[in-house]
TrEMBL record:
GO molecular function, one term: N-acetylmuramoyl-L-alanine amidase activity
Alphabetized CDD domains for the sequence: PGRP (cd06583)
A Pfam family annotated for this UniProt entry: Amidase_2
InterPro entries noted in UniProt: Amidase/PGRP_sf, Amidase_domain, PGRP
Name the UniProt record assigns to this protein: N-acetylmuramoyl-L-alanine amidase
Sequence ranges assigned to domain N-acetylmuramoyl-L-alanine amidase in this UniProt record: 2-148
Amino acid sequence: MTYIPDSAVKFIFVHYSATYDDQVVTAADIERMHLKRGFNKIGYHAFIRRTGTVEPGRDMTRPGKVEQGAQVSGHNHHSVGVCFAGGLKRGHGVNKGFDTRTPEQTEALIAWIDAQLARFGGDGMDPAKGPLVVGHRDAKGAATQCPGFDVAPWWAEVQANRRAAKRPRIGLLAAIVNLLKGARA
Ligand SMILES: [Zn+2]
């Protein structure tokens, strides 16, 4: 097993499994597919089932280092990767990828990315602070539609929505304070 230091992680890659959105797929299924491709185990660091259940892949349990993945050619030495089950729709064949995430998968994906950012640093958008959150297809030289959506703008929106969610609460508090002041005057 090859390990890379936490400090080497520059990218968090998001993948789909290129299986149909009505298929029940587990990390064990992916591992079987990857063993056939000559990998020694599942290539991703985590796998998210349709139900939102997160299954571990490559070893991330050791402090300060992570097992190198086999998920993005040319980028495994400086990245970790997560894969969600899905990406294909019946009637469209295997050559067209879609964002088929269930709400449970999206929620689990956000939580998983948050955990990685807590470990590796940053907000996923500033390479000076930590790894960038991107899609497989954003990797230089990658010829794939995986994971079926633009990850970086999606992640920026997740972060922006969080900031926006915090603001009204502060606004509400200010309104209450003003109301109390007015009542006293
Ligand atoms: Zn991929």
